[in-house]
Amino acid sequence: MDNNSDESPSEFVKYLDGLNNKKLNKYLGKKGVAEKLVQRGNSYFNKMWYAEAARIFDIVLEKTDTKHTYEILSKAGDSHYYTGNLEKSYKWYNELYTLYEDEINTDTFFKYTQTLKGTGKYRRAAALTKILRQKRNEPLNELESLNTNTWKGATQVTIKNLDINSKYSDFSPMFHNDSDIVYASAKDSSILTTRRYRWTNQPFLDLYVSKKKNDDGDLLPPKKFSKKINTKYHEASSAFSPDQKTIYFTRNNYGKRLKRGKNGINHLKIYRSQNIDGQWTSAEELPFNSEDYSTGHPTVSPDGKKLYFVSDMPGGFGETDIYVVDILENGAFSEPKNLGRAINSDTKEMFPYVTENSLYFSSNRPMGYGGLDVYKSDGSDKTFAGAMNLGEPINSNRDDFSYIVDASTGKGYFASNRKGGKGDDDIYSFAYTPNLNAIIGVVEDLDSGEALPSATVLLLQGNRMINETTVDEMGHYSFPNLNPTTNYMVVAKKEGYLNDSLAIQTADNKNIVVTQKLKAEIKQSAAEAIVKTFEPNNVYFSFDSYEITPSSAQELDKLITVLKSNKGLSLKIESHTDAIGSKAYNKYLSEKRAKSTKDYMVSQGIDPSRIISTSGFGEDRLLNNCGDSQSCPPGQHRLNRRSEFILIAE
């Protein structure tokens, strides 16, 4: 079998795998066989038969003398990456990076960092992420803003692998009726069926339905969802209208056979079917589908008025973005609208799910745990806040996705291909224990006992500000979702009053109720009052830099305005660094920061004589414990890269 026919790739791979080492080596030793195998692997790869391509490239790279070229290593890594074998993908990407570091493109580089996280090499992934940002000409100081913002809404999460999982891919659960779960599976209950999806060499996906067995999330043995909806190709990712009479689902684009777009890819489309007299009608495709890009992963808002979905249509921000359309009363739809940068990134956003007040989705954006992670964004309709990573154990160093939750119970399901499962992708149930750790307080006038509306309250942990809020008309405020048995500092302040600081330790999943009473300030001279009440914010610097950033310039402009309005004020500038690098260099850098701070203020019209001194203290006055021997996240180091100010009334 040394011809180059692509008619039966699975059979050819089985033939190779069936040879013992002696026969395989003899076969590979024939003249021209290695070259033909590379051609065959390229052909499989181009047709997206990645499972077979991966096996062919492995044989070529591991058992022949074929040169390990950029193209072969890249395609070998990609083939394993697309089929979820991160260990083997890492092997070939790592060799590719070692041999061709200067040639590797940013897309392959990103997938390499994903395999590093997927195989537990987080430090290496973080280091290479910095290099990736340099290749893209993206500033390194922005890495601080990429730190994972992890949701703290639960103190405990219990997850469980379900009995319905097969050795194939089981994923995309969805609530149906009161006690059913509809999900997609590649398990093949028909003995006569031999069709396989070439991407992963698994059976094509069908929709299954299973009833809930108990309140612990267990499910009874499933059955096929509907003969009208399941076909010989893929059906997956379903969603239902609130009355459960309409189903939306993802299917391959096909007529009598699979259809391919201009780029040769068989795209996905969203279909709709109605339940009439207990039977599902033949499915119709939605009008915003296309022959040249994919739409899929639909989900319906709780009120049934909006449909959210995923697409790689032109004009998006990344590989796939989340879009929304209005479901009109006549069954038609509005034009798709991208959810914007608050949700979508430069990478993949997939598997949206909407509750009354939140959007959940999966993304492989940087600084996650690895692969696809589940994120939560609070909001409603088309306005959602920035996303929070749901953290462990929902997320792992593999792909975690198709998350659904009953907001009233804190229970739900998601899919993952993490280690320890029964197959490729498995469905897990989960149950949250809500996080009740909160500080609930009121701010009052010390003398009158009356509430102080519009007072500001800061929440600090150590020297780091965690949160800030403004009290309501009754003087009330709250800081929810805190860590248990943790020391915090609450600082209440209001113009015309002295600040009040209160040290608080949270309990074990309980609310802490506090009252803070502020004392009115004694009347002072104008200059003294400004010194007392105006507290200039620190000006922060990028790593290893003394340049004034736009945000720092805004803070300095506020200080400049005060100095210009009050001629009796003078200023001292004190600048600092983090503890990264030598003490001598940091002393020099801090002096440069003090000088650049002064130079900016002088350039904006401040008389140099009013700046009494500029001092650089290097790393001698750290605001936290991030010294030379301590491992700290970037955000903690940033707090130390600052200029501070002392106002002096003459």
TrEMBL record:
<keyword id="KW-0472">Membrane</keyword>
<dbReference type="Pfam" id="PF07676">
    <property type="entry name" value="PD40"/>
</dbReference>
<dbReference type="InterPro" id="IPR050330">
    <property type="entry name" value="Bact_OuterMem_StrucFunc"/>
</dbReference>
<dbReference type="InterPro" id="IPR011042">
    <property type="entry name" value="6-blade_b-propeller_TolB-like"/>
</dbReference>
<dbReference type="InterPro" id="IPR008969">
    <property type="entry name" value="CarboxyPept-like_regulatory"/>
</dbReference>
<feature type="domain" description="OmpA-like">
    <location>
        <begin position="528"/>
        <end position="650"/>
    </location>
</feature>
<dbReference type="GO" id="GO:0009279">
    <property type="term" value="C:cell outer membrane"/>
</dbReference>
<keyword id="KW-0998">Cell outer membrane</keyword>
<protein>
    <submittedName>
        <fullName>Cell envelope biogenesis protein OmpA</fullName>
    </submittedName>
</protein>
<dbReference type="InterPro" id="IPR036737">
    <property type="entry name" value="OmpA-like_sf"/>
</dbReference>
<dbReference type="Pfam" id="PF13620">
    <property type="entry name" value="CarboxypepD_reg"/>
</dbReference>
<dbReference type="Pfam" id="PF00691">
    <property type="entry name" value="OmpA"/>
</dbReference>
<dbReference type="InterPro" id="IPR006665">
    <property type="entry name" value="OmpA-like"/>
</dbReference>
<dbReference type="InterPro" id="IPR006664">
    <property type="entry name" value="OMP_bac"/>
</dbReference>
<dbReference type="InterPro" id="IPR011659">
    <property type="entry name" value="WD40"/>
</dbReference>
<dbReference type="InterPro" id="IPR011990">
    <property type="entry name" value="TPR-like_helical_dom_sf"/>
</dbReference>
